[in-house]
Design a protein that fits this description.
alpha/beta; Rossmann fold; seven-stranded parallel β-sheet; 7 strands; binds nicotinamide-adenine-dinucleotide
Amino acid sequence: MSKTVNSVAGKVCVVTGAGSGIGRALALELAKRGARLALSDVGEAGLAETVQRARALGAQVHTARLDISDREAFFAYARVVVDELGVVHQVYNNAGVASSGTVLTSDWSEYQRVLGINLFGVIHGTQAFLPHLIASGDGHVVNISSLNGFMAQSGLSAYSASKFGVRGFTEALRAEVLAAGQPVGVTVVHPGGVRTSIATSALEHAKASGHRVSAAEEAQQRRYNEKLLRMPPEQAARIVVDGVEAGRPRVLVGRDAKLVDAVVRLVPAHYPALVARLARRTSR
Ligand SMILES: NC(=O)c1ccc[n+]([C@@H]2O[C@H](COP(=O)([O-])OP(=O)(O)OC[C@H]3O[C@@H](n4cnc5c(N)ncnc54)[C@H](O)[C@@H]3O)[C@@H](O)[C@H]2O)c1
């Protein structure tokens, strides 16, 4: 029996954080499959490149600079997109940042920044567009969490809290939409390591904020990227859009995400000890 596929062709799809990494790859994958696009990012240079590449693939593209942590700006953006494109079918709440630091030493401002972008940004995007997705008669919310949405890691408390939050928020939304019989699919995505700039950008941000980053820490970061951030973003984007077209509520991206999911289910109380052991090994 063939599986039902609800194609993205002809649909209006909103992608945040489209200027780099998974967001750019999602935009280009959606363009290849015939979607119309509303692309945004806080960084304009990266966004301009994505827009140019999506247009070269023949896509109609609406483009805007947007900081997803700014709730008012997000709602104003949603109104503009609906005014200009007439309808919105899908929103990919993708933009996010990484951050590291122990609970003992992390500044409160860093928790505010990371949760403001990774969790509140996703809530803003969902609330701003949900009425329009319902009105489209065939809507879909796609929220990008992480494998850190079901496995917390040492040194990543802000990031893990934000990504567990995205998962909880999205699963609650799915239950609401199902209970109300609204015509909106809901997907939470848990990528494992994807080869993007996320870790390098976090390091740059830490330096720009006045944190001293030693050569040893930089070298450790490089080793971490090489060992763990391996899947090409184009492949991740194909897995996500395939999952959306198949109407999957939960998409795990990569063997690492699937393995970690299985381990956490097997030993939910004891996995932090395994994580600690792994952290010691990857830091060597
Ligand atoms: N790369 C991975 O291994 C990985 C794994 C799991 C989850 N994720 C998640 O995937 C998503 C995309 O990350 P990526 O790896 O492509 O990173 P990336 O750094 O390559 O891209 C993130 C994009 O988001 C944008 N952005 C950052 N803050 C923003 C803000 N306030 N408003 C609007 N845009 C903003 C950046 O400018 C950048 O273009 C994130 O939510 C991330 O947490 C990534």
